[in-house]
């Protein structure tokens, strides 16, 4: 169960980042935005990097591993795209301010697990006799490609055409992976 206080702080954080940028956002800005004290903030988060990580984990990515196991990679991707689009201005501001390399460090561990499921489900078991090294290569490649595409898209577009993204990812998944 997600804390209402954390949600309120996260929404204030996103609003402030959209106005000021991540690097210029202070804890005081966040607490003023939502009418809370600094003590409230520090009870739930260590710093603004901690709240950023919380937003990624709880508002961008799917946290219920049981749900993820039942979803196709296309469904997971569409969920991710939809969540980015809901807070597009925020995610664009974050990528512009902290850069694609830092974004990669933040989200790679989460996306890697989903990509691993996709690779394991997609690849013909007979081909993967030397499975471990090939699987690692494929997982890292597809994870990096996805993160790079999304961060470059955020940097290059002021808004997201969610329908176009859904169509393009559907094309990729059906044409290349079955």
Automatic annotation (TrEMBL):
Q: Which UniProt keywords apply?
A: DNA-binding
Query: Where does the HTH tetR-type domain start and stop, copy by copy?
Result: 3-63
| Gene Ontology MF term list | DNA binding
Say which domain of life the source belongs to: Bacteria
> Sorted alphabetically, which InterPro entries does this protein's record hold?
Homeodomain-like_sf, HTH-type_Tx_Regulator, HTH_TetR, TetR_C_Firmicutes
Any idea which residues the entry calls the DNA-binding region?
Answer: 26-45
Q: What is this protein called?
A: TetR/AcrR family transcriptional regulator
Q: Which species?
A: Candidatus Anaerobutyricum stercoris
